[in-house]
Design goal:
- By secondary structure, the protein is α+β, with helices and mostly antiparallel strands.
- It has a domain of 34 residues.
- The chain is built from two helices and three strands; from the N terminus they run βββαα.
- The chain has a three-stranded antiparallel sheet, with no helix packed on it.
- A hairpin with a 4-residue loop joins strand 2 and strand 3.
- The chain is elongated and about 60 Å long.
- The protein binds iron/sulfur cluster (SF4).
């Protein structure tokens, strides 16, 4: 299975008018749920953590409700 961007023309982005780099600023995939690797596990992990809201569990409220 593959995917082709409608703005791609032989590796050139017709939307941004620069060589296609999926996920770059202005790319339609930038605000998507897809994550683009930087090539560094640690950098990817930091970016992922910054993107996801931290879910905190209020254990006191949870205990009181039961
Ligand atoms: S940069 Fe994004 S919008 Fe442009 S051609 Fe590549 S995938 Fe498509």
């Amino acid at each position: 299975m593959g995917w082709t961007c409608q703005h791609d023309y032989n590796g050139y982005c017709k939307l941004i008018k620069k060589p296609c780099v999926p996920g770059m600023k202005g790319c339609i995939l930038k605000s998507s749920e897809y994550i683009f690797s930087t090539g560094s596990y640690e950098e990817d992990k930091k970016a992922q953590e910054a993107k996801e809201p931290k879910e905190e569990i209020d254990f006191c409220a949870l205990a009181r409700s039961n």
